[in-house]
Amino acid sequence: MDFYVKFTSLSQGRDKIFRTTQYACILLNYFIHKDGSKKELAAKLKHLESNLSTGRKLFRLGNTLDSVQTARRNIHISDPVLRFCLTVIPLSRAVYYICDNILWAGAAGLSNINKEKWSKRCNHYYFFSLIVSLGRDIYEVVQLVKEEALAQRRQQSKSMTTLENNHVQKECIWIARIKAKVFLVLLFQCLRNNPPVLLDIVKNLCDLTLPLDKLGICKTSAAVVGLCGLLSSILSILTLTHPVLKLRP
Question: What is the pTM of this model?
Answer without folding.
Answer: 0.85
